[in-house]
Amino acid sequence: MLHYHGTPLTPRSMLQRMAGRSFCVSFANKNDADWCQSNGQSVMWDNGAFSLHTAGRETDWLAFYKWVEPRLGGAHWAVVPDVIGGGEADNMALISQWPHRLDCAAIVWHLDESIDHLLRLADLGFGKICFGSAGAYWTIGNEAWERRVDEAFNALARRGYIPWVHMLRGLALAGSRWPFASADSCNVALNYKGDSRQGNPAVCPDAMARRIDAAQCPITWSARPEQKGLFDDA
């Protein structure tokens, strides 16, 4: 499992301690992009949809395509634009517009979309699939979310193999039962400074990242019983 640590991480002197780690750089806040590309093991270029959506900001996908094009290649890859809260047709329209390499790109399956749609995405030839928590499955790790992810991996495994699955906002799941190939989060950037009011001292961000990176997910999947919930596919 590859662990992508979100940016920005300030001050720059603290980010520099993490040279050699893998990073997630969002189009919504790309100040660390050049440094991460020069010093990171692998960089995930996030389309910024989640950050822009939560901030109520407009998206400019043409600008994203232009910004990310020279950054694709090697171990560096991008998340294809998606519509937070949109439907399958909305997201398929954006996927069809992707102008760059498929092998250096990941498409997003939102957990509130159908399992059939997940399987369609798996056949499109992109290098990776991202799982995005959405709708009734917004809260990562609750019972409904776990049932849904079990169902998704069961469906993928029945086809004979599991593709590269990246869990968005999912580094807390490192070491869990699901065979995620990679995940990202801003845990280090947000929390390494600690909180003196809560008695949590500051720590070295690289030491914090090292502990996270040591937790791995399995590479195989054994089918699990599926218990349908109110919001699951019929």
Task: Report on the architecture of this protein.
The chain is an alpha/beta fold. It has one domain (2-213): TIM Barrel. The protein is built from 9 helices and 8 strands. The chain has an 8-stranded parallel β-barrel. Helix 6 (115-122) crosses helix 7 (143-157). The longest helix is centred in the middle third of the chain and has 15 residues, at 143-157. The mean pLDDT is 93.
Domain tally: 1
| Average pLDDT rating | 93
Give, in spatial order, the strands making up the sheet with the most strands. 1-2-3-4-5-6-7-8
Low-confidence residue ranges: none
Count of extended strands: 8
CATH class: Alpha Beta
Task: Characterize the largest beta sheet: strand count, sense, and whether it forms a barrel.
Answer: 8 strands, parallel, barrel
Enter the CATH topology name.
Answer: TIM Barrel
Query: What radius of gyration results from the CA coordinates?
Result: 18 Å
Structural class: alpha/beta
